[in-house]
Every structure is written in C-alpha cells, then in structure tokens.
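Example 4.3 (complexes with small molecules)
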Amino acid sequence: MSYTISKLIPEDELREGIKKVAERINNDYGDKDVHLVCVLKGGVYFLTELSKYLKMNVSIDFMSVSSYGSSTVSSGVVKIIKDLDEPIKDKNVIVVEDIVDTGNTLSYLISMLKDREPASIKLCTMLDKPSRREKDIDADYTAFTIPDKFVLGFGLDFDQKYRNLPYIGVVEFDEQ
Ligand code: 5GP
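Answer. The structure with guanosine-5'-monophosphate bound is encoded below.
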C-alpha cells in the first residue's frame, strides 16, 4: 500500500489554535484547579502543548483505551487498557483527546468517568471530525474542525508511526 503525506495544519497554526483553547479554559476556570485526563497515546502532544499555556494549578493523569487496531477504520469497540492512577471525585476534570471521530470512544469514556463523581467534567479535543459522528457527543473545547480524512502527526499515528511529526498531516492513499 503506497501513500503520501501532505500538511493539513502547519506547526505555527497548530500552536496558535492550541493557545486559543488554553485561553478559553483560563477564562472559564479562572483560578480553580483543573485535573487533565489525557487519553493515551495520541493525546500526549496536545496535553503537553495545551498545559503550557494554562494559568491555574493543573494536575494530570493518563488512561489508555483501544478503539482502533492498526487499521484506519473505527471498530466501535472500546476497551480500557490502562485506568487512571488517581480518583477524580470532586475534581474539575477536563478530558484531553487527540481527535473525536465517530465519538464511540469518548461517549463511553465520559459516561464511565461521570460515574466516579467529578465536580465537573468537560471534553477538550485537538481535532474534531464531525462528519463521521455516530454518537451524540460534542467537545466543549475544540482546537480545529477537520474534514473526513485520515490524519497523523502531533501524537496521532499511522501504524504506530509519525506521532512525532510537529504538524498535522493527511494520508493520501495512492490508487493501485
Ligand atoms: P472515535 O471513537 O471517535 O471514532 O475515535 C477516537 C480515536 O480514534 C482517536 O482517539 C484516535 O486514536 C483514533 N482516530 C480517529 N480518527 C483518526 C485519524 O484520522 N487518524 C488517527 N491517527 N487516528 C484516528
């Protein structure tokens, strides 16, 4: 399978978009503490960039769920691979995600986290692909809305590669 990668969101645009989301969070939460829950592995680059611009006290925790194998098509099956290290009861939780696509992963995750009685819970995503939504879920904070393309870079992989690209790229599969 041959493919080419082209730039969708260059590095400087990405940084500016993420800064704007951070400003909105700063305005909304003021000096309240926030607890960022990062969904591994794709959310890591977004979490670190976003958290640099947050002004309140921030704590972080990680969880890992599976919805994609090495394929580029959502299976709709969500499994917890790694749970959070700490309880989220009474915390102001912001779930930090790389991308909301069908919404299957997030709708499962958010309802599971709500059962743990956080003070509040919001969803912050770097990318949103609303055209493919299967579950009724909207992010509270979105840095970029993108078309229905398979993207990679800045945490997002293609067969576990390309997470370290500093920009968001699009994979174009060549005709066979
Ligand atoms: P959803 O459950 O919303 O369909 O999928 C969420 C997860 O699927 C994301 O956290 C991400 O890991 C993966 N995903 C969805 N779309 C893409 C994409 O365009 N590129 C990559 N690399 N992963 C994607």
